[in-house]
Write a structure and sequence with these properties.
The complex is a heterodimer of chains A (631) and B (135). Chain A has 631 residues and is of the alpha+beta class. Chain A has 3 domains: 197 residues, Aldehyde ferredoxin oxidoreductase, N-terminal domain (Aldehyde Ferredoxin Oxidoreductase,  A, domain 1, 4-Layer Sandwich); 191 residues, Aldehyde Ferredoxin Oxidoreductase Protein, subunit A, domain 2, CATH 1.10.569; 172 residues, Aldehyde Ferredoxin Oxidoreductase Protein, subunit A, domain 3, CATH 1.10.599. Chain A contains 27 helices and 17 strands. In chain A, strands 2-1-6-3-4-5 form a 6-stranded mixed sheet. A 6-stranded mixed sheet of chain A has the order 8-7-12-9-10-11, sandwiched between helices. Chain A is globular, with a radius of gyration of 23 Å. Chain B is of the alpha/beta class. Chain B has a single domain, classed as Ubiquitin-like (UB roll) (Roll). Chain B contains 5 helices and 6 strands. In chain B, a hairpin with a 2-residue loop joins strand 4 and strand 5. The chains are: A alpha+beta (631), B alpha/beta (135). Chains A and B meet through helix 8 and helix 9 of A and helix 2 and strand 5 of B.
C-alpha cells in the first residue's frame, strides 16, 4: 500500500510497440527517492547506461510528480522531466510549473516513463483511467501554440498539455518541452529527447484528487507556509515584478552577463528591465497552480514592429540571454525572440548563449561570412537574432551548427573557438556571472546537469541575507557566508542547496516560491509537510539523507558516463579574466579552494571527484559501488 | 510622481537615463537635522535611482536631491521615508533602523555599513532596491 500524497500508480509507455502498462508504485521506492527528481534519477540509473544514445530509442523520458504536487501546500504545481541529455551526454533534467503536474495526479498517476520510439508521430492522451496513444501526424511540424490549439479543438477544454515544437522534431540539442504553452521544461535538451521519440505531446485531464495522511496537520502547515510567504520581505517585489526584477539589481552587481560574458553589466539594462516591462506591456499577473506569489505575468507589445506580440512567462534569464548577452537593447524585439523560442520549443538560455558565442567569434575574426553563409554577426542585431533562432530550429544553413550548442559548435569550428565557449560539461551558462557571486561559480561546476544556477541555487549570499545566514549556519560562518565576493564557506552553502533542491524538485514544490528565492521554507518545514502529506516518518535528518542520496546518485550517473574532477572546471574567462564590471570589478572565481572544500564536505575523492564507497554505503547506494568499481 | 518640495532651490532636470520620471529636490533636513544643516554651510547634490517596489512607493524612477554637506546615506534614507510614507515599511525596521533587506548601491558599488554611515559626496549616485532575489 503506497503512502498518502501519491496516487500509487504510474505508466510505462513503450512507444515502439504502443504497449502501455499501469504499474504500482513501490512504497520503498518512495521512501528512498521521494518523487519527481529522485524517481527520475533512479530510473535513469537503472535503465539508461553509457552505451545508450540520448537520441536513440533506449533513452528514457521520465515525467514525474512528487507527493506535494497538487496539494494545498503553496507552490506545489511543479513537474520534473528527466532523461540522458543529448546536449551534455550526462544526467539531464528540467522542471516546469503550470498545471500539468497536478492534473496528472488527478488523472491517477504519479509518473510516466516513455521508452522506445514511435514509428510515426503520436501524442499520449490520458483521461483518468483511459490512456491511449493517438496519431500526431497532423500536429507534426506545428508550432507549440498551433499544436495545442488543435488538441484543444479535438479534446475540449480543461486539458493540460506538454508539447514540443519544431526544434525538438529537428533534433536541436537544446529543445524544450512547453507545458501548457508558456511554462518551459527548458534545459538539457529534454524536449529533444521527446522529439526523438516521435512524441509530439502529452494531453491529460483528471477528475480525481490527492489524499493526504493528516489533513488537519497538513492544512495547518500549508496555511502557515502561505502566511509566511506572503509576509516575507521578498514577496512584494517578486510578486509585482517576477524574476525580471533582477535585471537592474544584477547589473550593478556585475552579475548580468553581457556580450557573451565579456562584461557583467549592460549599459542599457534599464531599457530591458521589469519596470519597463510592467509599465509598458503588462496585461495581467498570473499564477501557476497553488501559488500565492504570482511571479508570472502576461505582456503584450502595443507599438512598433512587434506590436501584437502576446507573451507569458518572461524571465530574467531570457532577458539576459536574448538581451544583454547579445547586446540587444530592443525590449519588444527580445519579447518577440522569447515568443519565437516558445513557439519553436527552444531553451532561451542555450539558444541565446549559443548566438552570443557566435557573435564573439565574429568579433575576434574566428568566424567570417564564409562560415556563416554570408551573415554578419554584429552585436545588438535583434533581427539577426530572430533569423538565427528560426535557422536553428529548422537546422537551416549556419543554424545547423548553432543547433548543436556551444561546446559542439566550438569543437566543429576549431581555430581557438573553445576559448570563448561559455559552458560547463556542455551546458550553456545562465545569466549568473560567478565572478560577482562566488558560490554561483562553484554551483555551475558542481551541478549534475552541467552549468546551472538552479541545482545549488545559492541565494542567501546573492546580495546578502544576514539574518537568514545567521539563522541557518550560525555565528561562526558570518559574515563570509552572506558576502557574495567571498569564497569562504560557499561549498557548504552550495552543497546544502543541492541537497535541499533535490528534495524540493522531488516533492513537487517550487524553488521560485518560499523555498529558495524567499529563503523562508527550509528543511524543517519541508519535512513536516512531507510527513503530514505522506504519513512517512520524516525527521529532518532523514529528509536530508534523501536529498543527499539523490544528488550523489546523479553524480554517480555522471561518473558512470566518464565525468571526473577534470570536468569540474569553468571557462578560463571566469578563473583568469578579472571582471570589468560593477561590484565584481577585478574579481575572478577562486574555484580550486572551493572545490577542495566541496569534495571534503561531500565525502568525495578529492583526486578523482568520485563519491567514495564509504559515502555511498552510508547513503544506501551500495549498488553504485560495484558499478563504478569504487572498492 | 515625486512631489517637488516647497523649498526646492534647484531646477528640475532631466534624468540622464530616464526622461519621464525624474525630478530634482532639495532636502533641508528633517526637524532633527535642520540645526545640523545650518551648521553645514555647503550643499551637495546626490542622484537617486529607485527600483522595483521602491519606485512604486516613491512614485518616480529617480530624482536629484540637494543635501546638506555631511549627510550620510542612512540620514538621507530616513528623510526619504518621511517624505514618502509608503517607502518606510520597505526601507526601515520598526525601530527606525535601516531594513537589512534594503539594498543600497553607492556609485555602482554595494554600500556596506561603513559606507551608509559616512558622508555622501557631491555628485554621488545612490541606487535603492528592495528585497529581490532568484535567478
Amino acid at each position: 500500500m503506497i503512502y498518502k500524497g501519491y496516487r500509487g500508480k504510474y505508466l510505462r509507455i513503450n512507444l515502439t510497440t504502443s504497449d502501455i502498462q499501469v504499474r504500482e508504485l513501490d512504497p520503498s521506492f518512495a521512501e528512498r527517492f521521494l518523487g519527481g527528481n529522485g524517481f527520475g534519477t533512479k530510473i535513469l540509473w537503472d535503465e539508461v547506461g553509457p552505451d545508450v544514445d540520448p537520441l536513440g530509442p533506449d533513452n528514457r523520458l521520465i515525467v514525474a510528480t512528487g507527493p506535494l504536487c497538487g496539494t494545498l501546500m503553496p507552490n506545489s504545481g511543479r513537474l520534473e522531466f528527466i532523461a540522458k541529455s543529448p546536449l551534455t551526454g550526462i544526467y539531464g533534467d528540467a522542471n516546469a510549473g503550470g498545471f500539468f503536474g497536478p492534473e496528472l495526479k488527478y488523472a491517477g498517476y504519479d509518473m510516466l516513463i516513455f521508452e522506445g520510439r514511435a514509428p510515426e508521430p503520436v501524442y499520449l492522451c490520458i483521461e483518468d483511467g483511459r490512456v491511449e496513444l493517438r496519431s500526431a501526424g497532423h500536429l507534426w511540424g506545428k508550432l507549440v501554440s498551433e499544436a495545442e490549439a488543435i488538441l484543444e479543438a479535438e479534446l475540449g477544454r480543461d486539458w493540460k498539455f506538454a508539447t514540443v515544437g519544431p526544434a525538438a522534431e529537428n533534433g536541436v540539442r537544446y529543445a524544450c518541452i512547453q507545458v501548457s504553452y508558456s511554462r518551459s521544461a527548458a534545459r538539457c535538451g529534454i524536449g529533444t529527447v521527446m522529439g526523438s521519440k516521435n512524441l509530439k505531446a502529452i494531453a491529460v485531464r483528471g477528475s480525481g484528487d490527492v489524499a493526504v495522511a493528516d489533513v488537519a496537520d497538513f492544512k495547518a502547515i500549508a496555511r502557515d507556509c502561505i502566511r509566511r510567504i506572503r509576509g516575507n520581505e521578498f514577496y512584494p517585489g517578486v510578486h509585482r515584478y517576477g524574476t525580471p526584477g533582477l535585471v537592474v539589481l544584477m547589473n550593478p552587481m556585475g552579475r548580468f552577463p553581457t556580450r557573451n560574458f565579456q562584461e557583467g553589466s549592460f549599459e542599457y539594462a534599464e531599457e530591458i528591465c521589469a519596470e519597463r516591462l510592467r509599465e509598458r506591456y503588462l496585461v495581467r499577473d498570473v499564477s501557476c497552480f497553488g501559488c500565492p506569489v504570482s511571479c508570472d505575468k502576461v505582456y503584450r507589445v502595443t507599438e512598433g514592429e512587434f506590436a501584437g506580440t502576446l507573451i507569458r512567462s518572461v524571465e530574467y534569464e531570457t532577458l539576459g540571454a536574448l538581451g544583454a548577452g547579445v547586446w540587444n537593447r530592443d525590449l519588444p524585439a527580445i519579447l518577440y525572440a522569447n515568443k519565437l523560442c516558445d513557439e519553436l520549443g527552444m531553451d532561451t538560455i542555450s539558444a541565446g548563449r549559443t548566438i552570443a558565442f557566435a557573435m564573439e567569434l565574429w568579433q575576434h575574426g574566428i568566424l567570417t561570412s564564409s562560415d556563416t553563409g554570408g551573415l554578419t554577426l554584429e552585436w545588438g542585431d535583434a533581427r539577426l537574432v530572430h533569423r538565427l533562432l528560426e535557422m536553428i530550429a529548422y537546422r537551416r544553413g549556419f543554424g545547423d551548427l548553432l543547433a548543436e550548442g556551444v561546446r559542439r559548435a566550438a569543437q566543429a569550428i576549431g581555430r581557438g573557438a573553445a576559448e570563448y565557449a561559455m559552458e560547463v560539461k556542455g551546458m550553456e551558462i545562465p545569466a549568473q556571472d560567478g565572478r560577482a557571486q562566488k558560490s554561483m561559480g562553484l554551483a555551475h561546476v558542481t551541478s549534475t546537469r552541467g552549468a546551472d544556477h538552479l541545482k545549488g541555487f545559492p541565494i542567501i549570499d546573492e546580495t546578502g541575507y544576514p539574518a537568514e545566514g545567521l539563522r541557518r549556519y550560525g555565528e561562526d560562518y558570518m559574515p563570509d557566508i552572506v558576502e557574495p565576493l567571498s569564497y569562504r564557506h560557499k561549498p557548504m552553502l552550495v552543497k546544502d542547496g543541492e541537497d535541499f533542491g533535490a528534495v524540493v524538485d522531488s516533492s513537487g514544490n517550487c524553488k521560485s516560491g518560499g523555498t529558495f528565492v524567499f529563503a523562508e521554507i527550509y528543511w524543517p518545514d519541508m519535512a513536516a509537510a512531507i510527513q503530514a502529506a505522506t504519513g512517512m516518518e520524516m525527521p529532518v535528518e532523514r529528509l536530508k539523507r534523501i536529498g543527499e542520496r539523490i544528488y550523489n546518485l546523479q553524480r554517480c550517473y555522471d561518473v558512470w558516463h566518464g565525468i571526473s574532477r577534470a570536468d569540474d572546471r569553468l571557462p578560463r574567462r571566469f578563473t583568469a579574466e578579472p571582471s570589468p564590471s560593477g561590484n565584481a570589478r577585478g574579481q575572478i572565481i577562486e574555484l580550486e579552494p572551493m572545490l577542495e572544500e566541496y569534495y571534503r564536505l561531500r565525502g568525495w575523492d578529492p583526486v578523482t571527484g568520485y563519491p567514495t564507497a564509504a559515502k555511498l554505503r552510508e547513503l544506501g547506494l551500495d549498488e553504485a559501488i560495484a558499478r563504478l568499481d569504487l572498492l | 510622481m515625486c512631489k517637488r518640495v516647497a523649498c526646492s532651490v534647484l531646477h528640475s532636470i532631466t534624468h540622464p537615463r530616464n526622461t519621464q520620471h525624474a525630478t530634482r529636490n532639495t532636502y533641508h533636513g528633517s526637524s532633527a537635522s535642520k540645526g545640523l544643516y545650518k551648521q553645514r554651510m555647503s550643499e551637495i547634490t546626490v542622484t537617486l535611482r529607485y527600483y522595483n517596489i521602491i519606485k512604486d512607493a516613491v512614485g518616480c524612477a529617480g530624482e536629484t536631491l540637494a543635501l546638506p554637506a555631511g549627510t550620510t546615506p542612512t540620514e538621507m534614507i530616513v528623510f526619504l521615508c518621511q517624505r514618502y510614507p509608503h517607502l518606510r515599511p520597505i526601507a526601515l525596521r520598526a525601530d527606525g533602523g535601516l531594513s537589512p533587506h534594503l539594498r543600497v548601491f553607492l556609485n555602482g558599488q554595494v554600500a556596506r555599513p561603513q559606507h551608509l554611515a559616512a558622508p555622501l559626496h557631491d555628485g554621488d549616485e545612490v541606487m535603492l532596491f528592495p528585497a529581490i532575489g532568484g535567478g
